[in-house]
Automatic annotation (TrEMBL):
Signal peptide: none annotated. It holds the Pfam family HMGL-like. PROSITE patterns: PYR_CT (PS50991). Belongs to the HMG-CoA lyase family. This is Hydroxymethylglutaryl-CoA lyase. The keyword Metal-binding applies. The lineage of its organism: Bacteria, Bacillati, Bacillota, Bacilli, Bacillales. Keywords: Lyase, Metal-binding. Coiled coil: none annotated. GO terms for molecular function: lyase activity. Residues 7-274 form the Pyruvate carboxyltransferase domain. It comes from the Bacteria. PANTHER family: HYDROXYMETHYLGLUTARYL-COA LYASE (PTHR42738:SF7). The keyword Hydrolase does not apply.
Length: 298
C-alpha cells in the first residue's frame, strides 16, 4: 500500500469552528489564536467569513480580525465570501484567498444560503469573476456531499453538477464536505473512484466532520485514493448552523498526530498545535472533542 510522503492540512477552525459556537470570542483572543496557528506551521488558515452578522453573529468582527492578525510569510489567510458585498469587505481587509460555498442538496442550500442551487450559481459567478479580477485565488466548497440532514443520501450526479459549475467559474481547488459526518470508508472510495476520473486529485480536498467517529478512517481511504489535501479544525471545533446534530470537523491535532506517526509530513509542529488547541479550549470554557487534548490536557 502506497502512502503519500506529504499531506497539506488546511485549518478552517477560526471560521468553520467558531461559527457554530454560542459564545462570541473576543476579537483579540481570536487574533492571538490565529497567530498561534501560524506559529504552529499551518500554511493555510481560513480565518473568518464575511457574512451578515445577522446570520453568523460570532463572526461579526471579520474586518477587524482580518486586519489585526499577524501575516506570516508563506501563509495563505482565506475567508468565506457569500456575495459581492462580502467580497468587497474581504478585499478591503487584505484577505489573500476567497472561498465560495454551496450545497449539493437543494434543501440544505436553501437553508444555508436562502437560495435554490440554480439561483446560487449566478451570485457565485459574479463573486468569482470579480475576485479573479482583483488577483485573488478562489477555493470552492460543496456541502452535504455524502449526505443531507433534510434529504438523506445525495446522488453523485448532484455533486458533479455543482463541481463542474464551480470549476468553470475558476476555482483552483474544490473541498468536498461531509457536513453531517455520515460518510464511511466504502462510500468515500466509491465516490472518489467516480470523481477522480473527472477531476485531478490535486484539485480536490476532503472536509470530514467527525460526528460518528469515522473522519480519520475516511481520511486514510482518501489518501489511498490519491488525495493529499484535507481540512481540519483545531480542537475538533465546528458544526453547521443549518445541519442539526452535526459535530465538528476532524481535530487538526488528531489528524497531525496520526500522519506524523505514519511518517507522513505535514510541516506542522505538534506541540505548538496542542498549545493552540488548549488556548481556544480555555477561551471557550468547555471541553473540546479532540482526542489528543483529552490525552494531553496540559
Amino acid at each position: 500500500m502506497k502512502w503519500p510522503e506529504r499531506v497539506k492540512v488546511k485549518e478552517v477552525g477560526p471560521r468553520d469552528g467558531l461559527q457554530n459556537e454560542s459564545r462570541f470570542i473576543p476579537t483579540e483572543n481570536k487574533i492571538k489564536w490565529i497567530d498561534q496557528l501560524s506559529l504552529a506551521g499551518f500554511d493555510y488558515i481560513e480565518v473568518t467569513s464575511f457574512v451578515s452578522s445577522k446570520w453568523i453573529p460570532q463572526l461579526a468582527d471579520a474586518p477587524e480580525l482580518a486586519k489585526g492578525i499577524a501575516r506570516f510569510p508563506g501563509v495563505t489567510y482565506a475567508a468565506l465570501v457569500p456575495n459581492q458585498r462580502g467580497l468587497e469587505q474581504a478585499i478591503e481587509s487584505g484577505i489573500d484567498e476567497i472561498a465560495v460555498f454551496m450545497s449539493a442538496s437543494e434543501t440544505h442550500n436553501r437553508k444555508n444560503i436562502n437560495k435554490s442551487i440554480a439561483d446560487t450559481f449566478p451570485v457565485l459567478s459574479m463573486v468569482t469573476r470579480e475576485a479573479l479580477s482583483a488577483g485573488k485565488t478562489i477555493r470552492g466548497y460543496i456541502s452535504t456531499v455524502f449526505g443531507c440532514p433534510y434529504e438523506g443520501k445525495v446522488e453523485i450526479d448532484h455533486v458533479i453538477r455543482v463541481a463542474d459549475k464551480l470549476f468553470e467559474m475558476g476555482i483552483y481547488e474544490l473541498s468536498l464536505g461531509d457536513t453531517i459526518g455520515v460518510a464511511n470508508p466504502r462510500q468515500v472510495e466509491s465516490m472518489l473512484e467516480v470523481l477522480l476520473k473527472r477531476y485531478p486529485a490535486e484539485r480536490l480536498a476532503l472536509h470530514y466532520h467527525d460526528t460518528r467517529g469515522a473522519a480519520l478512517a475516511n481520511i486514510l481511504v482518501s489518501m489511498q485514493m490519491g488525495i493529499t489535501r484535507f481540512d481540519s479544525s483545531v480542537g475538533g471545533l465546528g458544526g453547521c448552523p443549518y445541519a442539526p446534530g452535526a459535530s465538528g470537523n476532524v481535530a487538526a491535532e488528531d489528524m497531525v498526530y496520526c500522519l506524523r506517526e505514519m511518517g507522513i509530513e505535514t510541516g506542522i509542529d505538534f506541540d505548538k498545535l496542542l498549545t493552540a488547541a488548549r488556548y481556544i479550549q480555555e477561551k471557550l470554557g468547555r471541553t473540546l472533542p479532540s482526542r489528543n487534548l483529552q490525552a494531553c490536557p496540559s
